[in-house]
Automatic annotation (TrEMBL):
One of its GO terms (cellular component) is membrane. This is Uncharacterized protein. It is found in: Membrane. Belongs to the UPF0057 (PMP3) family. The keyword Disulfide bond does not apply. Keywords: Membrane, Transmembrane, Transmembrane helix. It comes from Carpinus fangiana. The chain crosses the membrane at residues 7-24, 30-54.
Amino acid sequence: MRSGTADCLDIILAIILPPLGVFLKFGCNVEFWICLLLTLFGYLPGIIYAVYIITK
C-alpha cells in the first residue's frame, strides 16, 4: 500500500471516529488519550486534533 493511500485512509478514519484514526497511527500513546478526551468533550475538537496530528 502506498503512503498516500494510507494517509488518506487514516484521515477518513479520523473524521468518522477520531480516536481510532489516531490509535492506528500512533498506538496507545499520549496522542490517543488527548484525542479521546477531546472527542468526549466535543466531537469537532476531536476531529480537528486527529486530522492535525495525523497530517503533522
